[in-house]
Specification:
Helix 2 packs antiparallel against helix 9 and helix 6 (190-202) packs across helix 11 (298-312). The longest helix is centred in the middle third of the chain and has 15 residues, at 119-133. Helix content is 35%, strand content 26%. The protein is of the alpha+beta class and 375 residues long.
Length: 375
């Protein structure tokens, strides 16, 4: 194959033509990577990789080295003996992860290929690279590839890897002819139109506005408090954001990063964040005050606001990410499966990896809703 690679420890080392390869994903471009580097979670280290052939760069990718032993909690999905067993297994047999991709996002933000590259060969080379240069990591993971890219992994070097899929990514597609939020509401069936009206009525008295960098910095402590409530009560955590994460994103990404804040009587009670890239909106992190979330149906109203933002501004699709699939489907999002490939460095564990994965990441049961009127 005659490939070679370069590992970069810092974004300042990235070659000048990096973004010309990374243009397919905003999350692989220099601006985002620089913001990420300035606000990296304490238990995460980044390596940026370039793949070359005959001095020509064919692909760029993001590697994350994650140390789960530095976390005080993995989440609150389980209780009692089950959570003790899960924590024991993670700390002793899966505490150090090497991920090709971004574990803070949903989607294929692992690697971008030049048009003239051969993705199967590049991925084979990267697999060899991580096996040889990152031996200290318990598990190697290549994450969030769409179904049509599974073919790249159908080669001998991946035979021992577990192909897995967990919760789907929930994606919303704006319909042709929608120009305002009421067009979306009109397309809902009566049951879900009533849900929309009920949620909007509950939110009366809540002020929503977009914050600039100065305002984000001024409210940073409260923002982080709201973020932590959601993060620490999530089903599973592999990191916690740095306190300055949102201000770093706004400073570096500008109008590509949107921060929406929700206030009641002048007090910040919630927020959500979005990235915009061409005709796509990518949802990012959010937070809310648990004391008002249920009363104001705040999370559901945030979802409706994101839909409205996409329609009014001409975005064709919203990637809502994983988690809360049922409520996201109730506003019109559809599940899209993403696939990953995982291999444990201990052969005796790797042979039983499928069984262990089902224990650590049990299948989530949920009901898909269909909120739109039938044509």
């Amino acid at each position: 194959m005659n490939y070679k690679h370069q590992l970069y420890h810092h974004t300042s080392e990235l070659p000048s033509n990096w973004d010309s390869i990374a243009k397919t994903s905003i999350f692989l471009q220099k601006d985002y990577l620089e913001a990420l580097e300035s606000s990296t979670p304490l238990n995460v280290r980044h390596r940026f990789v370039g793949i070359f052939q005959n001095e020509q760069m064919l692909a760029v990718g993001l590697l994350q080295l994650i140390d789960l032993n530095q976390l005080h909690t993995f989440g609150v999905r389980d209780h009692g003996l089950k959570i003790m067993l899960r924590n024991f297994l993670f700390k002793n047999f899966a505490g150090k992860l090497l991920i090709l991709g971004n574990n803070m996002l949903t989607g294929q933000h692992a690697i971008a290929f030049a048009p003239e590259s051969k993705p199967s060969e590049v991925l084979s080379y990267i697999k060899s690279l991580v096996m040889s240069e990152f031996e200290g990591q318990h598990i190697h993971i290549l994450k969030d590839f769409p179904h049509e890219e599974i073919i790249y992994f159908q080669q001998p070097i991946f035979e021992k890897s577990l192909q897995f899929t967990s919760q789907p990514s929930m994606c919303f597609n704006s319909q042709e002819g929608w120009t305002k939020e009421q067009d979306y509401v009109h397309a809902l069936s009566k049951k879900y139109r009533d849900q929309y009206k009920r949620a909007r009525k509950k939110s009366l008295g809540v002020e929503k506005r977009q914050l600039d960098l100065r305002e984000i910095i001024a409210l940073e402590t409260r923002i982080y408090e709201l973020y932590l409530h959601v993060a620490e009560n999530a089903p599973f955590n592999t990191f916690l954001l740095a306190k300055n994460h949102f201000s770093c994103m706004k400073e570096k990404m500008g109008e590509s990063f949107r921060f929406f804040a929700y206030f009641e009587q002048g007090q910040l009670i919630g927020f959500n964040t979005l990235f915009q890239h061409e005709d796509l909106l990518e949802t990012y992190f959010l937070g809310y005050d648990p004391k008002v979330q249920k009363e104001k149906m705040l999370y559901l109203n945030m979802l409706y606001d994101m839909v409205g933002c996409a329609i009014v501004n001409g975005f064709k699709k919203i990637n809502f990410g994983r988690t809360a699939m049922e409520i996201k489907s109730s506003i019109g999002a559809q599940p899209e499966k993403m696939y990953g490939f995982m291999e444990h460095q201990a052969p005796w564990i790797n042979r039983h990896l499928a069984r262990i994965f089902r224990l650590l990441e049990p299948e989530v049961t949920w009901i898909q809703r269909h909120p739109f009127k039938e044509n």
